[in-house]
Amino acid sequence: MQNVYFPQPTRAESPSKDGKSRASRADGRSGDEFRGCFMRCGVLSHAAGSAYVEFGQTRVVCAVYGPRAETNPRQTKGQPITCEIKLPSTMATFESEFGNLMRQALEPAILVNKFPKCQVSIHAVVLEGHGSELSAAITCASLALVDAGVEMIDMVAACSAGEWDGNIVLDPTADEQTTKHVLVAFMAAQGQITHLIQQGKLSYDRVQEAISLCTDGCAGVLSTMMQMDEADFTRRLAQFPVVRKKTHCRVAWKREPGANKRPRLDVSFSTALETFLEEYFTPAESVRIRKEFEKVHIVDHGSMDPHVEL
């Protein structure tokens, strides 16, 4: 398989140089502990697939449209997967970069040969950013792809680790997130890394430690992905049960008659987001999120393909 990396076996952790315990984090977590996760599929009624993910106070909602015929091949340059992400105003300059990184992390897991001359569009909105925003967006997009019935080899989970207070810590918060960190997008059932990002100068041993920490974290995130809202998720997975074999784990896609029909576009994307905020957030949280995006105008052009415009 192209564009994947097989990580080395996890090695025993080495103590930090200063002898400190890696448990001394501001929120009380140990160095290899992930923040609390919450996940749900099918949160936006008008999309082919959608999902909502929380990594601590980092909150992301994602919608997937397609597969469908390419509407503008020149603009998308013939790419079968397109990703757009809207970030809080303090991170807006990274939107284009994050969109490209999301696509690179997800595309190796998607069986693009199953929909030739068609395209899958992924749109994510980071409602609140408190660290590891890209990891949460990749994980959320993977769940939305499952919800949309897009054929995949395996679900993709993403985790990040960074150097903080002289130690490598998993799932850094905004306060812990420094210029030295590693992000891993991982297919746990396959044991393959679809994308690896390193920022800042880290020694070889520190990079290997971060990768090992991230792959273990991704396995835990995948477990949470599989255990969320059992009745809701089981109904979706029943259409494409995972078939485990000795050499690989492939998704067999068995859909009910008529399941491939495009859902009716009954609400605009902006209206769907408003309904979502009212259902999943307290009034105070909704007001805070709306203030963050008060300058963002989300326009629906009637083609099930929302565009975020400033």
Structure description:
The chain has 310 residues and is α+β, with helices and mostly antiparallel strands. It has a single domain (37-298), classed as GHMP Kinase, N-terminal domain (Ribosomal Protein S5, domain 2). The chain is built from seven helices and 13 strands. It has helices spanning 73-76, 95-106, 133-148, 204-227, 230-237, 269-280, 283-292, and strands at 37-41, 49-55, 58-69, 81-86, 118-128, 157-164, 167-170, 181-187, 192-199, 242-244, 249-251, 297-299, 307-309. The strands form four sheets. It has a five-stranded mixed beta sheet. The protein has a four-stranded antiparallel beta sheet with strand order 7-6-8-9, sandwiched between helices. A hairpin with a 7-residue loop joins strand 1 (37-41) and strand 2. It starts with 36 loop residues before the first strand and ends with a strand. 41% of the residues are buried.
Number of domains: 1
What is the level 1 CATH name?
Answer: Alpha Beta
Specify the structural class.
Answer: alpha+beta
Which ranges are low-confidence, i.e. pLDDT below 50, for 5 or more consecutive residues? 1-23, 237-268, 295-310
Globally, the shape reads: globular
CATH H-tier superfamily: GHMP Kinase, N-terminal domain
Task: Summarize the biggest pleated sheet.
Answer: 5 strands, mixed
Mean pLDDT: 72
The Cα radius of gyration reads 19 Å
Number of strands: 13
The share of residues in helices is 25-40%
**What is the chain-wise order of helices and strands?**
EEEHEHEHEEEEHHEEHHEE
Distance between the termini: 39 Å
Q: Taking strands numbered 1, 2, ... along the chain, how are they ordered across the largest sheet?
A: 1-2-3-5-4
Strand content: 25-35%
Q: What is the fold named in CATH at topology level? A: Ribosomal Protein S5, domain 2
Count of discrete alpha- or pi-helical segments spanning 4 or more residues: 7
Oligomer: single chain
* Gross CATH architecture: 2-Layer Sandwich
Keywords: Cytoplasm, Exosome, Nucleus, RNA-binding, rRNA processing
InterPro entries: ExoRNase_PH_dom1 (IPR001247), ExoRNase_PH_dom2 (IPR015847), ExoRNase_PH_dom2_sf (IPR036345), PNPase/RNase_PH_dom_sf (IPR027408), Ribosomal_Su5_D2-typ_SF (IPR020568), RNase_PH (IPR050080)
Subcellular location: Cytoplasm; Nucleus
Biased composition (Basic and acidic residues): 14-30
